[in-house]
Amino acid sequence: MVIKKLHDMGIRSEHAYMAALGSIGASVATWMGSLKAEPGAGLARADRWGIFVGEWAPTFFGLGLALSHYEQQEGTLTASVRELREKKAAG
């Protein structure tokens, strides 16, 4: 199971979510960088680079969801998250 191996390697759902957000930012940066670095290539080339990097975000969000689900099933949520949930349920 890929998710179990990722979890065993120390990758948590928060890491995947941050990678997804970083991918969105990298997509914009790549688009702008390509547009400025290669002005002769035009807007179409910059769009292709931005879209290529932007396609990573849904994969990272999906991994984050899968890791979150695994963490909840395995009871490996951090104590602070568990405490917050208990407080919310109690009051």
Q: Would you write up a description of this structure?
A:
- The chain is mainly alpha-helical.
- The chain has one domain (2-90).
- It is 84% helix and 0% strand.
- The protein has five helices and no strands.
- Helix 1 (2-8) crosses helix 4 (56-74) and helix 2 (13-37) runs antiparallel to helix 4.
- The model has no long low-confidence stretch (mean pLDDT 85).
Please give a handful of descriptors for the protein shown.
91 residues
Q: What is the CA-CA span between the terminal residues?
A: 37 Å
What coarse outline follows from CA principal-axis ratios? elongated
Report the helical percentage. Answer: over 70%
What proportion of the residues form beta strands (DSSP E)? under 5%
Helix and strand element order = HHHHH
Total strands: 0
**Number of helices in the DSSP assignment:** 5
Biggest beta sheet attributes: none
Mean pLDDT comes to 85
Number of domains in the coordinates? 1
Q: What structural category do the secondary elements indicate?
A: mainly alpha
Radius of gyration: 18 Å
- Uncertain spans, ≥5 residues at pLDDT below 50? none
Brief overview, please?
This protein is an all-alpha fold and 91 residues long.
Write the layout of secondary structure elements.
Blueprint: H1 2-8, H2 13-37, H3 42-54, H4 56-74, H5 79-90
Helix pairs in contact: 1-4, 2-3, 2-4
